[in-house]
Amino acid sequence: MKKRLETTRVQTRIKDIRRKLYYINQQKRDILMDLKETFTQDDFHWVEQVIRVSENRENESVKKRQVRKFDALIKEKENLENKNRQLLEDHERMKEKIKNEVIDLTKDGIDNDIKSYLSLGPGFCEAPTRVPYERIIAETEKMCTKIKREGEINEIDEEIVEHEIGEIRENVKVILEKARHKKYKTNLTKEELNGKKKALQDKRKVFLPADKGRIMVAMDRFESEGGEQSYEYKMKQVLVDLKAKPSIRAKKDWDLTDKVCRDGTRVIETIVERGEISKENADRLKPKDCHAPRLSGLPKIHKNGVPLRGVVSMVGSPFEKLSRFVIPILRTIQGRSGLYPKNSRELKGKVKNWRVERNEILTRSSMTRS
């Protein structure tokens, strides 16, 4: 399709040039007829000879220039093809290099296509096949709203703010218009694409990155199918290790999320009354439409039995907004205290000299902003 469009464009340009040449020749003929009536026969022949020599010289010059342009385009095309071929070979070589082992803990095994896709590892970056227009536009509008709010706070002229917002929107529009006509190819093979599709459709298995290393692990989802090697059974063991107990009220499981939201709101209102934070910040920090934190697990393939390491996601929980507010503050003091280890080796050296009393607990905390 692209070649057809380029050929049509070249043919149209050739027709335009021929049409212009036809009009130029007509004008030249009219001028020569006028000169023939004005000059003597000898003078006219001399003028005609000069014009012919000049035309030949110009034709030769234009011909040489066009040949140079054509040779340059051919060379550029060959260089581009060689570059694309080299990139493709490097990409295939890199894919073969980064392919990793896949640990299969399922009872029935996994498909070869799925295994081929999982062998790319959790760190593999799949090339997008389409531009996320909606997401880009939504983020642009969010930024425009933020700029408008900052302009109102800093009392900047409204026309200046609107002009800046208009420029941002126009630039994003131009970029998206250019991207609309581009075609994007996936960097996955046919087998890997089939494996990805099958993995997404398989609801009886889970595919997780290992806790350490660039390795993927396949597990049965339900205990009835995979037994002790299933994800469900291993997650229950995580809860047993955490000594987690369900909240019971009226002999039923009780979700404490609403209670935590109410308690958090009361604490924030108390802080506002003390004058420690502004009312605007308090409104942003108050938990609304929350759900309980989500617990998931990552397989510890370096340990016997491949247990799971529990990972708690606070996204959408009553503590998410408060965490986002506190983390930048804690970042400013991170690493300044003597209790901040750079890595496990440094921690091991420090622990040797520590003494934990009976009324003390040795614990750790980590900050991750999603």
Order of helices and strands: HHEHHHHEEHHEEHHEEHH
- The Rg value, from CA coordinates, equals 36 Å
In DSSP terms (H or I, runs of 4 or more residues), the helix count works out at 12
Largest sheet: 3 strands, mixed
Proportion of residues in helical segments: 55-70%
Mean pLDDT over the full residue set: 81
Runs in which pLDDT lies below 50 for 5 or more consecutive residues are none
Q: How does the overall form come out from the CA principal axes? A: elongated
Please state roughly what percent of the residues sit in beta strands, choosing from under 5%, 5-15%, 15-25%, 25-35%, 35-45% or over 45%. Answer: 5-15%
Structural class: mainly alpha
Distance between the ends: 43 Å
Count every beta strand, where a strand is a DSSP E run of 2 or more residues.
7
Spatially, the strands of the biggest sheet line up as: 1-3-2
Describe what you observe in this structure.
Among the domains are: 94 residues; 119 residues, no CATH class. The protein contains twelve helices and seven strands. The strands form three sheets. A three-stranded mixed sheet has the order 1-3-2. A hairpin with an 8-residue loop joins β6 and β7. It starts with a helix and ends in a 19-residue tail after the last helix. The model has no long low-confidence stretch (mean pLDDT 81).
Write the layout of secondary structure elements.
Layout: H1 2-38, H2 41-98, E1 102-104, H3 112-118, H4 133-153, H5 158-180, H6 190-201, E2 205-209, E3 216-220, H7 223-226, H8 231-241, E4 248-249, E5 252-253, H9 257-274, H10 279-285, E6 294-299, E7 308-313, H11 320-331, H12 344-351
